[in-house]
Amino acid sequence: MHTLLARLLATLAATAAAATAHAGTGVMTLPATAGDGPVTVFYPTPQADAPVKRGPFRLSLAENATPTRGNGRLVVISHGSGGSGWESTDLAKVLVADGFMVAVPEHRGDNARDHGDMGPASWKQRPVEVSHAIDAVGRSPVLAPLVSLQSVGMYGMSAGGHTALTLAGGRWSPAQLRRHCEAHIDDDFASCVGPITQLRGNLFDGMKKAVALAVIRVKIRTDSWYEYRDPRVQAVVAGVPFAVDFDAASLARPAVPLALVTSGKDAWLAPRFHSDRVLQACRPRCELLADLPGGGHAALLSPQPPAEVLSPVVARLLADPPGFDRAQMPAVDQRIAAFFRQHLLP
After folding, report:
1. Is the pLDDT of residue 16 over 80?
2. In which domain, by residue range, is 82 found?
């Protein structure tokens, strides 16, 4: 009886110690280096969270708190086009609660502060920036001792999902995008043109499509293929990925465990051309981690950017469809964390 009681007390003490060690979600910024933007890092800390403001977001984090070791694994998040790491804070907090460290690079020329290289110009450099974010964590005297960088997870949504598919072994070409838009400008206008304008069902639509195709043909001339692998990335989750420019055959046998999260009412990236196409190519060697039949493109953004800081076109494309219940999203974050636990932890 005394032995059983001692074991019970030891278990309770260990549980309490773990809870104390992971009291909050720490956050720090690794500074920009030549050619790379800053990297935001979320991590376990014994310090309690407190209110912080980042851009339009009011969050609860432990700013510059002392990091503690979690499960010893890193997950890199690639933000969407024109975004930042803050729209994935809720997912980052779930991952940190599971013991992961989370690094979010600011993608050069395609972030909330700089839109100069959106599209293929950014997609070429984003996977390399993921590698550089891993390197940045490895150079940090505070963070490096707390993680092993030989088995890293990677998550991305939208343009970040494009990055994810590349790191999972996919190869893509801007020419594929050009050909897709020439064939499907009516059905996939938003993904071909972006948030510059929208079709309104009036006499100006024909002119908008003609101008869009003329610009695409001028800007996209190369037929080159692009691919990139980092052997440290050992598991990938792609959320509502931009995918029309991928060679489907390259996704038939992903180089690492690959999972997708899809939204059935995505108004920005029509699922039949993007997520559905990836699933058709990679199954059964990939996993549909979560399907949100009533979800829109921004279902995975949590917290959501306030509508008042967005252009009218972006606000429409990111709005939740009527009836969509965001109460289901924490469970999706938990599934993403479970996928990384399964494939990254011994």
Report:
1. no
2. 19-172+226-344
- Both 145 and 183 in one domain: the answer is no
Q: Return the closest-CA partner of residue 41 out of 83, 95, 81, 110.
A: 95
**pLDDT band at 22; cut points 50, 70, 90:** low
**Per-residue tokens: 194:** 């972006």
Structure tokens at 53: 């403001």
Is 43 exposed, middle or buried, given 0-12, 13-18 or 19+ CB atoms closer than 10 A? buried
Q: Residue 85: pLDDT band by 50, 70, 90 thresholds?
A: confident
Q: Order of strands across the sheet with 74-78?
A: 50-54, 57-63, 24-30, 39-45, 101-105, 74-78, 152-157, 233-239, 258-263, 287-292
Task: Quote the crossing angle between the two packed helices 329-344 and 89-97, to the nearest 10°.
Answer: 50
Q: 258 and 141, same structural domain? A: yes
Q: Is residue 9 assigned to a domain?
A: no
- CA angle, 291 as apex, 298 and 310 as ends, to 5°? 5
Cα separation values, 209 from 118, 181, 182, 315, Å: 19, 10, 10, 21
Pair 265, 296: CB distance under 8 Å: yes
Same domain, 53 and 85: yes
Q: What does the pLDDT look like over 225-248, one tens digit per residue?
A: 999 999 999 999 999 999 999 999
pLDDT in tens, 173-225: 999 999 999 999 999 999 999 888 888 888 888 899 999 999 999 988 888 99
